[in-house]
Amino acid sequence: SRWPLRGLLRIRSITIFATDPSPFLNRPESARQTAMAPRFVDVLVPVALDQTYSYRVPAGLELAPGDLVSVPLGARGATMGVVWAENPAPNPRLHNRLKDVADKLDVPPLKPELRKFVDWVADYTLAPRGMVLRMALRMGEHLGPARERVGVRLAGPRPARMTPARARVLSVFTDGMTRAKGDAAREAGVSTGVIDGLIDEGTLETVVLPPERVTRPPDPDFRKPEFSLGQLAAADALRTVVDQGGYIVTLLDGVTGSGKTEVYFEAVAENIRKKRQTLILMPEIALTTQSLDRFTARFGTRPAEWHSQVSPRLRARTWAAIANNEVSVVVGARSALFLPYADLGLIVVDEEHDPAYKQEDGAHYHARDMAVVRGNVAKIPVVLASATPSVESEVNARRGRYKRIHLPERFGGAHLPSIEAIDMRREGPPRGRFIAPRLAEAVKNALESKEQALLFLNRRGFAPLTLCRACGFRLQCPNCDAWLVDHRFKRRLVCHHCGFAMPPPAECPQCHATESFAPIGPGVERLEQEAAELFPGARILVLSSDLVESMERLRQELDDVAEGRFDVVIGTQLVAKGHHFPKLNLVGIVDADLGLGNGDPRAAERTFQLLHQVVGRAGREEGRGVGFLQTHQPEHPVMKALILGDREAFYSSEIALREKTAYPPFGRLAGLVVTANDRHGAEAYARTLVSTSPISDHVRILGPAEAPIAVVRGRHRFRLLVKAPRAFDLSAYLRQWLADAPKPRGNVRLEVDVDPQSFF
Ligand code: ADP
Ligand code: ZN
């Protein structure tokens, strides 16, 4: 069958891996021989292994593919696994030596759809299947019966001895309702001891409550917005897509502030009416109260949430509720793709261009791409939403492989911000300063009109480099090929690659000069210092991921900004994502060139998307938004496209360049990163790999080259880049290659990254 996914992925028959016998075999046990032919299953376990293991099914146990089981696995003892296939005929010599499945778990089986997806992702990314399965079983060790909830209700006569506290409890219970003990105590303003006393007297009695629901069912008609004509047309088109069902990818392409969320909520509403489940994927950091509140306002109840901050217990309950079809809508980060939906009918990928969708550790996968795969496997619609689509999605929309739905205008007549360049070569700030006079002036004017300003700099900390003025020594990480970043708020010098941190040294380690250190370049903390001097009295907030104490705190701070409790926000890319700040009309990009010079083939695309999104925070409600780009290269195509508001020009030139150079989506890439404790070990294995690569007219192997950051966490790094034409099955080539190549030995490690997004 034809596979329309961005032209890169093609349906491949699912590889059935040779099943190995259990590595730890039972002794032959003649007593266990029965007249009945024994049955066997192949079980996949959630560890970093590709193959399944065969087990014997004990008499009386009914097992089918997808069932969750507990199996013995060597030194690990009992391990959770999933029956991947029946195995009618394992090697007869092994029959009596295979171990028994220990138990079948009381949870719904993983559907064929999810198993096929796990196989597909593993096959494509070269991650071991067990590692991919682990993402589907990430409900942790808390799976099992939910903790019993005990409720209390009125049962008997009033107690012999009345106290004011007891009276308050009784008045709470006069409505005849059953309450959790803690809730009742809180409502009555007493300790739970008072409740216990009343239970002892027989006035109250305990009952077992049904487990708490993860969410209540959303109401598709709870509060429908009044749509503009453009929104109405887009919402209708999306509703039709959901109504017709089946696999189709739609790019919801709307400018910032056009109401993409409200519009795709109509697709969600339609899917709820069809009583099917919806997954809304978001970049983790965008999962703020704001987005969840908007869901609640539209559907009358909160969605189920799935991200790293969900507690293990709630995680387990959510997992089970999704598998039991008790949850209708999940809003989640990329790992939510692997949940065991009972009846998934729609996937929405919000901010589909966001680089945070790429998982870089464990299994390397891109959640947007895999969402499209999951949609194809499940035969359901997928909606990708963005104001700045990835080049991949843009190409697919231009070629008609994706359906495009346009929202060309901001909602409510708001204007898109106008963007101006500040040429830092001619009108830059004085030495040691980073805010140009023209930008400072604009911020002052905004503050005088009681508007907010956002200064954007994608650099955490105070200064990216600290240098001894006496001898030129630069403070470097002892474990990495990287400078230490000065984090003054925390009084630490920190390595952004390995997390190494130390207090600022009292003297230069080289020349022993004191007070000789000078910060070089700005981070957001240094900008705050400058802003405090330039704008006295302004309420300034720095938003940066390293300063975020908790998701709750971040949510609070974003709300504070939205409600106008700060005048100047200084932020890293944390502030770029989908937030809606009604009083913000001015955005200043402090260093627009920052992402352009790093040799990454996606540098231009990334910079365009990021700056467009950040500037798009301005002028979303009242007034006219203005954006300033401080740049040394105002003639760069990215800057020109931003200033002229000419998105199409940017995409056209970027697409032409990718086509000419055969970079994605017109060619395929894989990154191979070899690391070792010593430079020689890493380089030697990288060379061995190249010398054993299968000969192919289609494949070009670049490298090995020392990685741009040559040492991380004390590990030396070499990179290979493998390039192939679009129609070439690069995963199969890599698998063949790595199966035949000598395995890395000792402390040498190899990481494979198909469709790499980062090249450091
Ligand atoms: P986008 O995601 O396209 O940047 P949003 O969905 O965040 O845009 O919408 C921008 C703002 O406009 C939000 O506050 C949203 O609630 C509001 N909005 C959009 N459409 C409507 C509508 N039809 N009725 C009321 N408010 C709307
Ligand atoms: Zn380091």
Characterize this entry briefly.
It contains 20 helices and 32 strands. With 760 residues, the chain is of the alpha/beta class. Bound molecules: adenosine-5'-diphosphate and zinc ion.
Uncertain stretches of 5 or more adjacent residues: 1-35
Radius of gyration: 29 Å
CA distance, first residue to last residue: 37 Å
Q: Quick check: average pLDDT?
A: 89
Total helix count? 20
* Strands in their spatial order, largest beta sheet: 11-12-10-13-16-9-17
| Secondary structure tally: strands | 32
Estimated share of beta-strand residues: 15-25%
Helix content: 25-40%
Notes on the protein architecture:
The chain has 760 residues and is an alpha/beta fold. Helices cover 29% and strands 22% of the residues. The protein is built from 20 helices and 32 strands. The strands form 8 sheets. The protein has a 7-stranded parallel sheet, with helices on both faces. Strand 11, helix 9 and strand 12 form a beta-alpha-beta unit. Helix 3 packs across helix 4 and helix 17 packs antiparallel against helix 18. The longest helix has 16 residues. The protein is globular and about 85 Å long. The two termini are 37 Å apart. The relative contact order is 0.09. The N terminus is likely disordered. The site of zinc ion has 8 residues, from loops.
